[in-house]
Amino acid sequence: MTDRGEPRHQQLARNLNELLAELRVAQAGVQILFGFLLAVAFTELFRAASGFEKGLYLVTVLFTATATALLTAPAAWHRLLFREGQRTQILRVGNRVVVAGLVCLAVAVTLTVALIVKVIFGGVVMAVLATFVGGTFTVLWFVMPRVLRGRRPE
């Protein structure tokens, strides 16, 4: 029995279902971003982009593709291993993979904003807004959970 009074196998099933539900939110975001990025490469404006902008675009696409792979991996593992009693391993490794995927997604969104701002407003505004967006993701996704972890439940 766990501290919630449920058998271990029920806790694992609940934890895995929670993980998969959380992934649905992140996967939707990364899929929309990936679709947007794929469409950009086929525009006239992209053909006229500078080498820096094309390089930034490529790095952004690679981070988005990596986020896609990392954020969909636990769902694939569950589908392939669900009858083999591997929930503990899926949860243990899946948690790390999802956090890595969220890092890649935060970087990809930040770089997407940087690319758009660079094309519209130039390098200085790009640096300022990319720093702001990256900082926002860092604080909300990675710093705040540590702060909240340190607080006692009311």
How would you portray this structure in words?
It is a single chain. With 154 residues, the protein is mostly helical. Helix 3 runs antiparallel to helix 4. The longest helix has 35 residues.
What overall form do the CA principal axes indicate? elongated
Helix-strand pattern: HHHHH
Counting H and I runs of at least 4 residues, what is the number of helices? 5
> Roughly how many Å is the radius of gyration?
19 Å
**Relative strand content:** under 5%
How far apart lie the N and C ends?
Answer: 25 Å
Q: How confident overall, as mean pLDDT? A: 89
Q: What helical percentage do the residues reach?
A: over 70%
Structural class: mainly alpha
Q: Count the strands?
A: 0
What kind of sheet is the major sheet? Answer: none
Poorly predicted sequence stretches spanning 5 or more consecutive residues? none
Task: Present the secondary structure layout.
Layout: H1 8-40, H2 44-47, H3 51-81, H4 87-121, H5 123-149
Q: What can be said about this structure in brief?
A:
With 154 residues, the protein is mainly alpha-helical. It is built from 5 helices and no strands.
Task: Give the tags.
5 helices, mainly alpha, 154 residues
